[in-house]
Amino acid sequence: QHALLAIKDLISHDPFSSLSSWNSSLQFCSWRGVTCGRRHRRVTSLNLSSLQLAGSLSPHVGNLSFLRVIDLSTNRFHQILPPEIGRLFRLRYLSLEDNSFQGNNFRGKIPSELGSLSKLLRLNLAAIISLVQSHLHLGTSLACMQAYCQFLLQISRPTSNWLDSTNYLTGDIPVEIENLKNLEYLIFYENMLTGRLPDSIGKLSKLQALHVYTNRISGNIPSSFGNLSQILYLNLAYNFLEGTIPVSLENYSQLEELQLSYNHLSGAIPEKLAGIDSLFGLLASNNLTGNLIKLDVSDNKLSGKIPSSIESCVMLEYLNLKGNFFEGTIPPSFKKLRSIRVLNLAHNNLSGQIPKFLGELPLLGYLNLSGNNFDGEMPAEGVFTNASAFSVAGNDKLCGGIKALQLHECPKQRRKTGVHRKVVILASCAALFLLLVVASVCAVIHRRKQKKSGPSLASPLEKKYQRVSYSELVHATGGFSSTNIIGDGKYGTVYKGTLGSDDQVAVKVFKLRQRGASKTFMAEINALRNIRHRNLVRIVNSCSTIDFQGNDFKALIFEFMSNGSLESWLHASSPESQDFKNLSLLQRINIASDVALALDYLHNQCETTVLHCDLKPSNILLDNDLTAQVGDFGLAKILLAAGGESFSTESSSICIRGTIGYVAPEYGMGGEASTHGDVYSYGILVLEMFTGKRPTDSMFTGKRPTDSMFTGDFNLHCFVEAALPDRVMEIIDPLLSVDIQEEVQTRRNGPRGRSSISIEKALLLWCIKASSSRSSLPQDPSVDSSQNVMLAKTVALYTSCSLQETMISITNWTILDLTKFFPLNHANKCSPLLTF
Fold first, then answer.
1. Could you write out the DSSP letters of every residue in 158-205?
2. Is residue 98 annotated as a catalytic residue, yes or no?
3. Which listed residue (71, 614, 678, 817) is catalytic?
4. Fewest CB atoms within 10 Å of the CB: 336, 409, 518, 822?
């Protein structure tokens, strides 16, 4: 308590009186922003984010030795960050960032004591205005750090509150960065860093991304960079690097993107680097074993011949070699680049004839060969038929081509002799005859195979759209018109579109400028590549290319769900409006059953267990028959069977998976993702379906009801649990009241009478454990997630005969409960829908 009061004393400005509760009249664990442990009354979390507090941070914060979380983001703290933070050896999360219009104003060095935080998982220093040059002496004990420096000391949209909006990091990259052994992402772009790239970066064996572009780095690329065996993205563009490209970079077996443009590099491109054939690629036409998409080494001093091994990059779409000293001819191996869309070889010393196969590349839309020494006849097919799509300026020895080029005619070749002509005709006839024979044999074999194989099981959409281009998606969505938007999230926007004549689809376009969007794209691909189920949204196609401005573009195409999301039905507008929608009790039960079946499939029936990690109403889509289909696998995680390992495409394993209100509590404390987390989210979903209350409803976020039965922390669990068993009808969705009353009246008038119905309800209410899903960790270790999910489906179906019991949380029920309280003969009498 004394440490917290000391922190309050140094806060000079509290505009909203947010800390008014910090006084001796209340126990300190009840103060705003303070969270204490369950087993002891020690402070474990201090969250003062977005309160617009001003002042300095007291050194007494170091006395809160049990702290795990400190979040001071979006305030106006100033002066020195106290080194006493280094005492907090239990600290896991430290956030000083600003995501709003004010920012922070910490000054001084980053305390070297941060290196003592052995359990720290995330350090966020983004958008700190006055951070001076720091030597990151962080030691060797920092367990896992991600550098968020892309906006460090740089405000892109200044407001009237700031006098200087462009501060930059200066100085050298410290050699001591080698101590961050577990570093995965190192991002220093768009600053004013100088000096050389430290050789010590090559010791960061777990590094996956290195972005140092747009600085003033000079010197050579260290050969030690070849030790970065896990590197995916290497961007050193827009610096003053010189020398040759190290041969050691050929060790990059997983490289996705290499950017070395706008430097002073010289020498030849290493042969194996240009021909890496095992690059971890992006999705193209549902083929997940892609290749390098973009290669840009323009405006350097590279020389020699263009490596012919570049033919291995069969999925290459963008190749920019302009502004170098390459010589020789265009390699014949370029004919294998069937996916190339942009090819820029301008301003080199290339010579010889322009190959005709360039006109045969089906997707080539822009070709620049200007400023070279090409000669001979210009091709006139493919890209060469559109004068605005290619440039050959500065090649004075060219002739022929289309009229728009206004080149002189090529000299005519002398006619062949009559004997030579006869030989050519005879050889052509013989070759044509052999070709016809081979074609006939192949046709017969193919027809026989078709008869044996039977009809194809592929859907009409999959047959029709084997490959979708960017221009087709532009046309299908009306130029990505805002009127066609049917959903919008952090990583992507979903548009309604029409492919072909009348096939409606949903096109999810990823916001690639949003950090983590590319990883989300890969997560959905890896999750959906091998799964098929009637209750999972099916991917129809995909598109990974560049747009008309040359920017990266990624999209997924799904079947269009005409009834939208479950969110729009549960929280629709008022009954008086024209777009009012409502689900009956039976429809809600069926939807809950569909979602349970989908989870059971993902957890137990797939070859590898798939975790959804973001189950909520907005990710449950409804088709024409109101059949539920689970979608949005952007946070999905795949558990491998061998050794319990896992695969995830997210940038960090410590990010909280899911949406606030639906995510399992242990995820917030750094717990590993598991099937129990999905089951917990499913329990929240069921409660929301039958109460009509979101877990983030205003009544659960800081407000407490006046009713005396609600005491302590108040959330959706407490809301339901407190109403059992006598007040269930008071907490159900009001839109279900009429439906339920009609059902109850029907049962009272039935042959069994009112008393038998009351007996059924009493049996359920008193025998079943109520509202026990406060944590996704199972109480019975022998019960796995599949049992929980299928039990949830069973209980939902059982409610078709016992209406009020749907409100009861099902997350932690056990199979023992099922066999004890739901005898087979009783269940079968109740509802023909219930089967075991």
1. --TT-S------EEEPPGGGGG-TT--EEE--SSEEESB--GGGGG-T
2. no
3. 614
4. 409
